[in-house]
Amino acid sequence: MKLKKMIYTAAFTLLLLSPITTVLASGKPNDYQASHIIDSAAFPNDAEAMTATYEIEVHVQGKPLEGLSIDIPSEIKIDDGIEVKNSEGEKIATEVSINENKAQIIFSQPVAPETKLSILMKDVITPGYAETWQFKVDAKIVGFKEAIPLGITQIMTYDD
Predict the structure, then answer these.
(1) H helices present in the chain, as ranges
(2) What is the pLDDT of residues 86-122, one digit of tens each?
(3) Residue 43: closest CA among 98, 116, 105, 122
(4) Number of Cα atoms under 13 Å in the Cβ half of residue 103
């Protein structure tokens, strides 16, 4: 009888929480109140490409962003810098520095909520073998002293 009660309690709890999960994942404006990574990809995703661009997309929500930091795998070199654009393709004024394995992106003006950003790492040089590269992304949010982790995103490259 006790086991049956535990099963019913667990099922009821899951039933109550399922609408919350659906709302958080819907992608509708204001459904999720924190900035987050949307997607990432390599163009082209050929491991031997000499002029690949790696892109990480971030959806700004909740509070405005002052900046981002990206941990870059040690085997990767970004040869032509980092550019940031909004969803309309307009460049966002930034100050970018890449030191060792970390890129720091500071926005000239805080980026407003409901803005989708494309962080473009240009002319990425890799060792030339297929790999799943992981990038840790943190955000500097207006009003916060410490950076807030947005997560780890993966970019996969393939051999021909």
Answers:
(1) 2-25
(2) 999 999 999 999 998 999 999 999 999 999 999 999 9
(3) 122
(4) 27
